[in-house]
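Example 3.2
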Amino acid sequence: MTTNKTQFFEVSINVPFGVIAGKWYGSKDVRPILFIHGFEDNCGSFDKLIPLLPSHGSYLAIDLPGCGLSSRIPPGMLNNVSDWVLVILWIMKAYRWPTVSLAGHSMGAMACYCFIGFFPAKVDLFIAIDALHLSHFEQILDQQAYFITRSMKADGENLSSVPATEYTYEQLIEKVHNLPSCTVPKELCHCLLQRNISKSQTLPEHYYFHYDKRIKYPFFMGWSMEATALTAKRIKCPVLLIFATDSLFYGDREEVARTVEQIKKNNHTKLVHITGGHYIHLTDADQVAATIEMFLNEIEYYNKCVQSKI
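Structure, written as tokens:
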């Protein structure tokens, strides 16, 4: 099976709290690169990118818990970024992978970085798109305190019998197009919308967001600057870092620069800047795909990994 814009398998992976849903592009006989999306997104975030990657590869893009078609975490729990490490482990267990190839965008890249910190020997490839590691800032305690209280309120809203706010599809496009962090072209908004909305049962041509409201309030305390620095020393796999020139998500630029320099000491590391905003994997998918393909060829990824069947 070759990879193109229409050929993929919908997958549903059993985990203790329900299922992790996703799209698998390519042969199921080949261990895929696991793609992790960013904040409030879903696996549709990679709809433009993955079809442009080499057809002899295999790629699995998942919906994180509470996003897209995946199950929500149990009521009363925080949306903890470090818990996404467990999601990766459950997927590896389900498919019996001894190692994993990781690609992440934004907060998904940060979760991958955490995973490598804990399990460096389990990762044979890391591709980070417009983010690298969790950053800390002076107001982090106040922000996280706010997120905790908002998460409690969102938990109640999840369990409430009050109907969710409903919108026309055009209104939904506007909401995604004008995200607070960046602008997504209207013609690409459907990639982020289609797995996160359901049709209204009462109003014709109206929709509502069905995702877990707690995903708006991620919790990432417990991961320190020291952990970031130590992880950089522990990374042994090839690393590709793709940063957008107009990104708002670098965090502390000096800390990122130090981290990148440390990573470069250990392995084959490539840093590429692509002109564009935070969603370069959507808006400039051709450039991102070409960059990834070139990198994978440089490290002979397809010869070493894809040729071995699972």
